Amino acid sequence: MGNAEHEDPITMLTAAVNVVENWPADRYAEHKQVVTRLEELLAAYNEEIQIWQYYQNTELKRPLSPGPRGSIAAWLGEPRAHKLMEINERVNGYLWHITALTGVGPMRDSPSDEAMLQVAEQQLQAHVEDPGPYAGRIALQHLEERIARIGSLLDSIRIVD
Questions:
Q1: Taking the model in full, what pTM does it have?
Q2: How far is 77 from 85, CA to CA, in rounded Å?
Q3: Less CB within 10 Å around the terminal CB: N or C of the chain?
Q4: What is the per-residue pLDDT across 92-102, written as a single tens digit (0 to 9) for each?
Q5: CB within 8 Å of 132: residues ≥ 6 apart
Q6: Within 13 Å, how many C-alpha atoms sit on residue 90's CB side?
Q7: Which pLDDT tens digit goes with each residue over 28-63?
Q8: Where are the domains of the chain?
Q9: 68 alpha-carbon distance from chain centroid
Q10: What distance in Å separates the CA atoms of residue 37 and residue 94, rounded to the nearest whole number?
């Protein structure tokens, strides 16, 4: 796939897994590294699930401030928003490592929880009766879809020793 741009992490990871599936046996060490990064990626997304699960049943208790990250930071609270951004940095590191190992990339946008934060931010502004829980449910849904897809990709290249 070379240096084609990938708009989302699943597209990039699918291309990377396709590359790994075609590697000869002498690329075992790199293959194992890709598997490890995918496992770490799944673990990070599961950490995010733990944070987002709390919010699917949490109502907004105060008005939200306008502007980028204003609403989401007010709703999540600084400690949890900070934790999600830390996880985001780790996830991006795993994705970039996979990109470097496979030669697939670069990605144009931040592909991790930053996307979940953007999704939740948009949902908080939605005209629904319970925007907080709705935003939490949508973020969880997106994460669960990613986890399922990445799990499937991982299963296709997992090494059985």
A1: 0.81
A2: 12
A3: C
A4: 899 989 999 99
A5: 55, 58, 59, 60, 75, 124
A6: 18
A7: 999 999 999 999 999 999 999 988 887 766 665 554
A8: 9-157
A9: 20
A10: 6
